[in-house]
Amino acid sequence: MDRRFAETEGKRAHDPLYSPRSAARATATGFPVGEHGEVFAGPLIVGAGPAGLAVAACLTMLGVPYVLLERYGCIASLWRHRTYRRLCLHLPKRFCELPLMPFPSSYPEYPTREQFLDYLDDYINMFGIRPFFRQAVISAEFDGELWCVRTKEVVTAAMDGEEAVLSSATREYRSKWLVVATGENAEPAVPEIEGIDVFKGQVMHSSDYRCGEPFHGKKVLVVGCGNSGMEVSLDLSNHNVHTSMVVRDTVHVLPREIMGISTFGLSVWLMMYLSIQNVDRLLLFLTRLVLGDTARLGIPRPSIGPMELKKVSGKTPVLDVGTIGKIKSGDIKVFPGIQSFHEHGVEFIDGRSEYFDVVILATGYKSNVPYWLKEKEFFSDKNGFPRKPNEWKGKNGLYAAGFSRRGLLGVSMDATKIADDIIQCWNDTDYERYNSK
Ligand SMILES: Cc1cc2nc3c(=O)[nH]c(=O)nc-3n(C[C@H](O)[C@H](O)[C@H](O)COP(=O)(O)OP(=O)(O)OC[C@H]3O[C@@H](n4cnc5c(N)ncnc54)[C@H](O)[C@@H]3O)c2cc1C
């Protein structure tokens, strides 16, 4: 996109009326959209998280109008409403910025959740992005010529302490292009665990966890040891909560930094010069110096190295920000898999049984694409990801933004490629033809 972007920018520099903001405003006002199922000239983007916003910004700069549909009343609902307060970006900021706008230089190396949300607010202002909020996409299908996307708009308000539905309406949008940007983490994944229904304590998903304060003095079990499970455990422990964590599988835990250098940045650099196996050997050697032998703490490592595992399975290594230290000091206890729940606690597969007040399921998330997209060739109907890893383009104008399991870096790469691809045929589209049918 860079060359074309530079050309477009050059032309626009001489256009006194042009601004990214006005281009996007034209998007929301200049074309018929929605209520009667008219055809929209530009692409439909589903999801106003970082991926949807990045695609919208790239399209804006190329002068392509779009409609951005978001189920909630805000952008980046995952970051705003389903993350814990202590969350910071796991990777250095240079790997997390969206296309066309760097993070402010005043931001720290690992911006906080609030800083990231401020950045996204600035991003939508910069590019004049105006999503259509409260438009939950309930179905999308290709009719042989166009994508027909149906949304449900539900407006609620708090009344007498309860959430009352004020109105609900369905709409239809049609377009030549559909960009799926609903995220790898659209819905919490909750496993079935034997006996969980009989447990009398509180059970919650990590997406509902905000901070450790309410759990003060309680015995809490965190199920899962991905980035969320490790950080929630650390936060609980920092709030003097009796914290235990279940580690069922093998997992690669790496320090977030090695000798002051970001482990992620270091691996990206090493991969340019060494084979993936040698990078893994070096990373594991350095990790052992920093963290020690995690297997001795109850966190065994997979048989293949972290980078190779990421490549073959998409499984991301966990970056430690202090949890391992808390495990070593005994502030966080580690248990193996759960055998079953009982009324007041849990029996583990090693035969131990413990009492708990609260169980937090840090068991991850899943894509919701299979629930609404009526297409099975490009997207898998099993996991809602593109069938081939790193695929961003399907048939008939279908795109996937943010499904490459590469976090915000992958989001940016997808958005740039998608906007580039759409502009190729944008100028040839005769949308009047569809509407006059
Ligand atoms: C706790 C946590 C921490 C993370 N930290 C990092 C990090 O530090 N660095 C990193 O690179 N990545 C991180 N990630 C990964 C993170 O998911 C992505 O970086 C980023 O949020 C992906 O953006 P996205 O737009 O693809 O998805 P999302 O942020 O999930 O946005 C998807 C949007 O689509 C909307 N949507 C979903 N379904 C529908 C529908 N049917 N109709 C309309 N709208 C819909 C959602 O409401 C949401 O607003 C983290 C994830 C989690 C859960």
From TrEMBL:
Its EC number is 1.-.-.-. Pfam families: FMO-like. Gene3D superfamilies: FAD/NAD(P)-binding domain. InterPro entries: Auxin_biosynth/cation_transpt, FAD/NAD-bd_sf, Flavin_mOase-like. GO terms for molecular function: flavin adenine dinucleotide binding; indole-3-pyruvate monooxygenase activity; N,N-dimethylaniline monooxygenase activity; NADP binding. One of its GO terms (biological process) is auxin biosynthetic process. Keywords: FAD, Flavoprotein, Monooxygenase, NADP, Oxidoreductase. It catalyses: indole-3-pyruvate + NADPH + O2 + H(+) = (indol-3-yl)acetate + CO2 + NADP(+) + H2O. Its cofactor is FAD. Belongs to the FMO family. This is Flavin-containing monooxygenase. The lineage of its organism: Eukaryota, Viridiplantae, Streptophyta, Embryophyta, Tracheophyta.
